[in-house]
Amino acid sequence: MRWLRRKAATHLRRDRKRVDHAISGEEYRKAIHAAVCDHGTHDYYTGEKLDWSLISTYDNAKSKAGRSEYKAQFALLPTVDHVSGEDGRYDFVICAWRTNDAKNDLSYEQFVALCRRVIEHADQA
Q1: Which of 8, 36, 81, 97 makes a 20 to 30 Å CA pair with 49?
Q2: How many angstroms separate the CA atoms of 12 and 88, rounded?
Q3: pLDDT for 56-70, tens place per residue?
């Protein structure tokens, strides 16, 4: 429950600066909870199984010392990604932290196009 509240609060703070309609913490908690219930066992984009045991285990001090090797251990940490809903409001999907880092602010279509370009380039090498 703590994870859900933190994720909703983080997205709410950021989105209040981006949208022109009212949004609430309750609305975001419900939408994120629905995303977890719908497909929270696997990364929405890659199908990889998510590791929910990693929730609330990240340690900033260890991250600073271990750098990318430490962060790599959290690749399958479940996190929340924005997707554009049909009504112009945000909706959410659950994906791995690594995937969310790679996708960043890209739309689904832009992300898939980028992945295809990466594969095409790798196949040419």
Answers
A1: 8
A2: 15
A3: 999 999 999 988 999
DSSP state of 88: S
Residues 70-101: b if buried by 16+ CB within 10 A, e if exposed: bbeebbbbbbbbbeeeeeeebebbbbbbbbbe
pLDDT of residue 57: 93
* Between 13 and 50, residue with greater pLDDT: 50
Give the integer Cα–Cα distance in Å for 57 and 93: 21
DSSP 35-81: HHHHHTTB-TTT-PBP-GGGTT---HHHHHHHHHHHHHTTTT-EEEE
Tokens of residue 6, six digits: 């933190």
Report residue 110 as tokens: 């832009």
CB 71 within 8 A of CB 98: no
Extents of the domains making up the chain:
1-123
Q: Residue 98 is encoded by which pair of tokens?
A: 């690594």
